[in-house]
Amino acid sequence: MPEHTPLASRRGLLFGAAAVSAGAFLTGCTSNESDDDKEAAADTRPAADDKPGKPVTIGYAGPLADHGWLNAINDQAKNRAGKYSDVTLEVTEGSNDTAQQIGQIETLINKKVDVLVVLPADGKALTQVGLKAMRAGIPVVNLDRVFNTPQAYRCWVGGDNYGMGLNAGHYIGEKLKGKADARVVELAGLDNLELTKQRTQGFDDALKNYPNIKKVARQAADFTVESGQAKMAQLLQAQSKFDALWNHDDDQGVGALRAIEQAGRDDFLMVGGAGALSAFQAIKQDNGVLKATVLYPPTMAASAIDLARALGQGKGIGGLAEYEIPASITLYSAVVDKDNVDQYMSTGFK
């Protein structure tokens, strides 16, 4: 899993980065530069902003929207591009077929777009077309599913699967730390995906901090409502008593909640994953087992458009001292519960 620097919010990516800005300010205060020197230096560093600049054509190759989160990814990219008068977005038809997506990206390369944003159906399988774009002088923003080599992209931006599990585990751990012999269960995603293994590893590592808690069962589903319902029903039948459930994905969580309701169970707390609107609404109502969800923000696609625009205009990120955008950015997996759900409600996906 690549090392990345977490940044907590989409706005912080390009226009805020308050903590970094504060650090840069403090450094400046202790230097020997005059105020005039510092002002001049600041003026020479190009930073992305909302003001119209050089026109940029961005080619976007996203996924087939067969899942709520993936549909949100495409919507975020399109909506973000629409906010910029200097951005033209060339969108391919979403595909989960690697050969088809490669062909779509090659078409964008032949059109000589200024920058490419790619969420590959399979990072390994699409690495060569990423390399082809980079060799053609087209910077690639690799979104979420990472290519096999950093040579295939200029910047990677995506979520933190290990961090999802880690933060879910710490949230549950803190809720149960006063309970002796606490028992937790896990409803994972597709076990053949590396991201599922990372989410489980983060969760297990977090639970090591709470010796009173034992994970007593784990069931893998496949990110659909139907599988969530079926696998959750199996967990409930096998485990007559437990204190908390971590479900990797809010889409399959819809099915899991159906199974929980059908079983008449309300004796545990549930933490979801990703950030679906339905999960936010249930958390806000606070009349069921779902008490929190850990974000895997689809806003990363909007951030990818911001980054692509900055690349096309030869600009850096506001709030950072560097002239260039970073090579990689990992978004933070915030925990959303009833205390902060209103803040995130507008980002929930259907």
Automatic annotation (TrEMBL):
Bias kind Basic and acidic residues: ranges: 39-53
A Pfam family of this chain: Peripla_BP_4
Family, similarity comment: Belongs to the bacterial solute-binding protein 2 family.
Annotated region (Disordered), positions in chain: 30-55
Places the protein is found: Cell envelope
GO molecular function, one term: carbohydrate binding
Entry keywords, A to Z: Signal
UniProt protein name: Sugar ABC transporter substrate-binding protein
Organism placement in taxonomy: Bacteria, Bacillati, Actinomycetota, Actinomycetes, Kitasatosporales
GO cellular component: cell envelope
Annotated source species: Streptomyces fumanus
PANTHER family from the UniProt entry: D-ALLOSE-BINDING PERIPLASMIC PROTEIN-RELATED
All copies of domain Periplasmic binding protein, residue ranges: 58-315
SUPFAM superfamilies cross-referenced by the UniProt entry: Periplasmic binding protein-like I (SSF53822)
